[in-house]
Amino acid sequence: MLKSALRLLLLACCALTTSHSSASHLVGGDLRVEHVNDNIYEIILTTYFDEINGAQQAIDSEVLVSIFSKTTNELLGSYQIPLASDIPIENNLSCNDNLLQYRVITYKRSITLEYQSFNDEQGFYLSWERCCRQYSLNNIFSEDPNSGGISSGFTAYCEIPSIVYQNSSPKFTTPSEVFGCVDLEFQVDVSATDQDGDSLVYSLVTPYSTVDTENAIPINPNPGPYPEVVWRDGFDNDNVFGSSSDINFNSVDGVLTIDAASTGTFAYAIKCEEYRDGIKIGEVRLDMSLLIVSACTNMDTSNPDLFAFLTNSKDALLDNQTIEVTSSDQIQLDVKIIDVPTINESAQEVGVKARIKSYYDNTVQ
């Protein structure tokens, strides 16, 4: 009798734990490796947590990241990575109407990669699988695993070369925009930086789900290839925000230009491929979601102001200002675009995207 009662209690606790850990909470994230010195590397997993709909119990104190051979898909190692930081992102955007708040949760650990195991020229890949993505997504199926519908997990994925390269993965910047307004064009910077100076090429791709969406955390690490999410009708990788929306992605700069035709929360993924001397040596992926709202009455749609500065000068050139130069002089101008923010009243610099370099033979006016 006592054993039966204890068994029922244990089953109830397991069910409760599974319910918490399987809850809707993942906005997205990315996984990368950073070279420290010699054969020591740091694994860094960044996740974005849904503050509005996410269950606090779904925040893991540590995560299991695994490394596989690209040649054989053999598991070469699994590493428990502890939580390093948990930072709420302030969101004072009133037209968001508190529909999307998120926090950045980062896991880090240094590991040693031995030459005899990690010198394959074909390279290696790392992965971490977790359920569940936000249930509120409009463009992909992401439902409660216990509902009988189509659920969606999240696989963080990156590729690294042989350790002879002593390479660090590209690092994505925290996405500058997590929401936008319907029928109003805006941009999202999803670019990365590379400390090794490698060439980066971006592409918009279908997000990865998990091999088993029923389990919040896989019992054993799963090798790739990893399944993609299931798009809802009317959506696909070419129609992330719906077929009537306009989207343009710059594969060189990593900037999304979006003119969404409908409101909702939309998942998307960016692949950043890393090239050295014309050879692909690595890859990182960023998964994220974007909230499109309609209540944008305080959006300033006026044109931004354009200012020109002589290089190393803090003073903007005035209208009709004349600069005298000789025919042998070179004039270099920095162009800054200043726009009024959508929500608060102070002006902010939203981009220094243009740089003009011109050569003049006569007076510039």
What is the number of helices? 1
Strand residue content:
35-45%
Ends distance: 95 Å
Could you say which structural class the secondary elements and strand pairing correspond to? mainly beta
Shape annotation: globular
Order of helices and strands: HEEEEEEEEEEEEEEEEEEE
Count of DSSP strands = 19
- Rg over C-alpha atoms, rounded to the nearest angstrom: 24 Å
What would the average pLDDT be, to the nearest integer?
81
Give the helix proportion (percent range): under 10%
Largest sheet: 11 strands, mixed
Unreliable stretches (pLDDT < 50, length at least 5) are 1-20, 340-365
Secondary structure: elements and pairs:
Blueprint: H1 2-21, E1 26-37, E2 40-50, E3 62-69, E4 75-88, E5 102-112, E6 124-130, E7 154-160, E8 171-172, E9 179-181, E10 186-189, E11 192-193, E12 199-205, E13 246-250, E14 255-259, E15 264-276, E16 279-293, E17 305-310, E18 330-339, E19 348-359
Parallel strand pairs: 9-16
Antiparallel strand pairs: 1-2, 2-5, 3-4, 3-6, 4-5, 6-7, 7-16, 8-11, 10-14, 12-15, 13-14, 15-16, 17-18, 18-19
